[in-house]
Every structure is written in structure tokens, then in C-alpha cells.
Amino acid sequence: SFCPLAMPMVAGPGGLAVVLSVANKANMQIIDYAAITAAIAAACFVIWICFRESSVVANILGETGMTAITKIMGFILICISIQMIITGTGGVLAEWGIATLTK
């Protein structure tokens, strides 16, 4: 089945940005493109295995375990979103000269 949460996490803007920025190097040779293609293929294979075996994991965890995992993953996604908002807002405020965020 299609899980709407899985698609942005698997092939979201972050992954696409990494692939495009790595592939945009000026002096890349054919071996570099082959390495990028191999890395993408390996990631696709691992994702395929995870999706293929997800029913086994779901059966082991049961309904209660799946509910707990869903809530934990939702919390992690919220944390990532908040961090992105803070980072983006800090960048805008620094650009405008209003405030700076320190690490």
C-alpha cells in the first residue's frame, strides 16, 4: 500500500538537493557519475528490502507496537520540521540583520 509519509522521507527535497548538488560539480568525470548512480541504486535496493519486509515487522510488532512506532516516527518528523523552521527563520533574520543564531 502507499504510505503518504514514506514518499517525502524517501525521495524528498533533501535527497533531490543532495543528488543535484553533487552532480553539478564542474569537473566530474564518468567515474563520478557511475559512483553516484551506484550509490542511488544501493539506496534504492535497501529501501526496496525495507518496504518488502515491512509486513513481517508489522506482524512482529503487532497493532500496539505499530501504533507506538507511528507516534515515535511522527515525533521525529515534527522535530525535523521544527529544526528546519528554526534554521530557515534564523537565516532570514540574519540576512535582514535583525538577529543571529549562535551554535
Describe this protein with a few key phrases.
flat; 0% strand; 2 domains; 103 residues
Number of domains: 2
What percent strand? under 5%
Radius of gyration: 19 Å
Estimated structural class = mainly alpha
Overall mean pLDDT stands at 83
Number of helices: 4
Number of DSSP E strands:
0
Poorly predicted tracts of residues: none
Distance between the amino and carboxyl termini = 41 Å
Specify the overall morphology. Answer: flat
The largest sheet, given as strand count, sense and whether it forms a barrel, is: none
Q: Roughly how much helix do the residues carry, as a percent range?
A: over 70%
Q: What string, H for helix and E for strand, traces the elements in order?
A: HHHH
